[in-house]
């Protein structure tokens, strides 16, 4: 068992490293393919060719793309993210506070979405085909179908414009206390919670319902065990493997999917920073933010596989 788990971790780590390498290369080629560069973005389209060429020499943009990419990769492996092209600040300093803001959104949303989804999934499975089950299914299907930005604008119109309960623009800073930060981040957190809860709830319900026809569940029913106890103590423990998979994938999406939500609510996180950096063609910041998002996604996928195998050891010995 230990050898199988170790082989899985090493294999996933190797694939994760190759994935990160491919993403960094794709990001570089994609941004380079866009019209203009950081010099034209800062100086404007009307800047003379001599000034643009001088800017290229100053920022070392006159060298071939592959040479700049290899230099960045060598420095990045050593822990050096480089300097921003627009303000010449260290990239690590630029993204420092932004990382905390983004992870605050993701963690707060996860703390609400995971227990809520599990509870609704269990109750829907317990009362399947009832009005409550149909209502929850309709709501979750709507949540899956509606784009995140549309949910964000609806919540903004209701809670910020109509009732004025929460601010429409999430201005957070490092000097805010926890209660102020929660109020300022309420709408982005609610948007992300609604976006991911639907997937987790439906997977929880589907996993439990599929197990309800198992022989050991039928035996528990014949013994007179109450339906709630059957689901919580007999079905749910055996349904953890697919539930964990979908939870971890949605947690990964929470970190990556904050980009749109941050832009809508003008939230000072990594997603908004990456959008601004792409607009200004600031390659070091674009690469750094993309690698953070990709690394989190790879790590959470690896963790999902490990937890799934730990909850269901049969997965380590496929037939």
Description of the molecule:
By secondary structure, this protein is mainly alpha-helical. It has a domain at 100-268: MetI-like fold (Orthogonal Bundle), CATH 1.10.3720.10. The chain has 15 helices and no strands. The chain has helices at 2-33, 38-43, 49-58, 65-77, 91-126, 131-145, 148-162, 178-184, 186-211, 215-222, 227-238, 240-256, 258-264, 270-280, 283-311. Helix 5 (91-126) packs antiparallel against helix 6 and helix 5 (91-126) packs antiparallel against helix 12. The protein is globular. The two termini are 15 Å apart.
List the main descriptive attributes of the protein structure presented here.
mainly alpha, globular, MetI-like fold
Quickly name the level 1 CATH class of the domain at 100-268: Mainly Alpha
Q: Give the CA-CA distance, first to last residue.
A: 15 Å
Number of strands: 0
The gross shape turns out to be globular
Structural class: mainly alpha
| Secondary-structure element order, N to C | HHHHHHHHHHHHHHH
Provide the low-confidence segments as ranges.
Answer: none
CATH third-tier fold name of the domain at 100-268: MetI-like fold
Q: Can you tell me the CATH superfamily of the domain at 100-268?
A: MetI-like
Under the CATH scheme, the architecture of the domain at 100-268 is Orthogonal Bundle
How many H/I helical runs? Answer: 15
Average of pLDDT: 83
Q: Write down the Rg.
A: 24 Å
Biggest pleated sheet: none
Helix content, binned percent: over 70%
Hey, roughly how much beta strand do the residues contain? under 5%
């Amino acid at each position: 068992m230990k050898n199988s788990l170790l082989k899985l971790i090493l294999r996933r780590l190797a694939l994760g490293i190759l994935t990160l390498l491919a993403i960094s290369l794709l990001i570089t080629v994609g941004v380079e393919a866009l019209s203009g560069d950081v010099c034209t973005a800062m100086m404007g389209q009307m800047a003379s060719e001599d000034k643009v060429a001088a800017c290229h020499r100053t920022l070392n943009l006159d060298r071939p793309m592959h040479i700049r990419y290899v230099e960045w990769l060598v420095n990045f492996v050593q822990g050096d993210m480089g300097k921003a092209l627009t303000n010449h600040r260290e990239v690590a300093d630029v993204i420092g506070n932004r990382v905390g803001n983004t992870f605050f959104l993701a963690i707060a949303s996860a703390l609400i979405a995971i227990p809520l989804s599990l509870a609704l999934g269990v109750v829907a499975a317990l009362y399947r085909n009832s009005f409550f089950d149909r209502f929850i299914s309709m709501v979750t299907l709507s949540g899956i179908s509606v784009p995140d930005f549309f949910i964000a604008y609806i919540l903004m119109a209701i809670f910020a414009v109509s009732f004025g309960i929460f601010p429409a623009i999430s201005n957070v800073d490092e000097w805010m206390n926890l209660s102020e930060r929660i109020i300022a981040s309420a709408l982005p957190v609610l948007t992300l919670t609604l976006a991911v809860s639907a997937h987790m709830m439906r997977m929880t319900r589907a996993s439990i319902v599929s197990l309800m026809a198992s022989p050991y569940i039928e035996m528990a029913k014949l013994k007179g065990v109450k339906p709630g106890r059957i689901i919580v103590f007999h079905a749910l423990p055996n349904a953890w493997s697919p539930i964990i998979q979908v939870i971890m994938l949605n947690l990964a999406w929470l970190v990556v999917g904050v980009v749109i939500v941050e832009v809508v609510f003008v939230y000072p996180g990594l997603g908004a920073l990456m959008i601004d950096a792409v607009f200004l063609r600031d390659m070091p910041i674009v690469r750094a933010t993309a690698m953070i998002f990709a690394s989190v996604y790879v790590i959470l996928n690896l963790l999902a596989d490990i937890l799934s195998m730990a909850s269901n050891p049969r997965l380590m010995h496929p037939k």
